[in-house]
Amino acid sequence: MRKIGGVLLAAAVALPLFVIGAPGGAAGAGQTCSKLTGTVTFKPPLPKIGSTKKVITTFSVKLGKLSGCAGPGGATGTVTLTAKTTKPGNCSTLASGSTTNGTETIKWAKGAASTLKVKLISPKASTNATVSGSVSAGQFKGMKTTASAGYTLPKGACSSKDLSSAAISLKKGTKLVIK
Question: Is the model's pTM score more than 0.85?
């Protein structure tokens, strides 16, 4: 049941992720970061597996912390992300995969913030999510982003209780990359 919960979170949060990650190092005048920590919240919470109730939820990340960064943005940054599902769902429907559009803002230690328009994709039966998009305003405007993030569900989330939040981090072996 816990494995199913992890899969659900990935599907649900794929939406979140917002982080911009990809294998490799820094490129050109872009930015890379090696670490992301944060929490994604779901309002209203996603009903647990077995529930027939479905909701349209807004998920958000507030003040996700970026570190190990290299580039004109400085050594650190904070991430906020907001996205809203377009179809009602619950933990069960999220396990079947999802795609959601969102807006992400990264406030860099140096320079202007970056605003990104992103697409969050959570594949079926996965505990990871990918994010792709572009910087629409601020520092790095016009550059592209891709991401790979992992999710960790709290004990009992989706199996015995509704999903209201989950921890997020960059997928092992990836970096946040803007280029």
Answer: no
- Tell me how far apart the alpha carbons of residues 102 and 16 are, in angstroms, rounded to a whole number: 8
DSSP assignment of 133-167: EEEEEETTTT-EEEEEEEEEPPTTBTTTB-EEEEE
- CA distances to 1, 19, 45, 71, 99 from 7, rounded to whole Å, are 10, 18, 16, 34, 14
Integer Cα distance of 145 and 131 in angstroms: 8
Closest CA to 138 of 31, 44, 39, 59: 31
Count other Cβ atoms within 10 Å, centred on residue 80: 17
Encoding tokens for residue 39?
């929490």
What does the pLDDT look like over 93-123, one tens digit per residue? 776 777 888 999 999 999 889 999 988 777 6
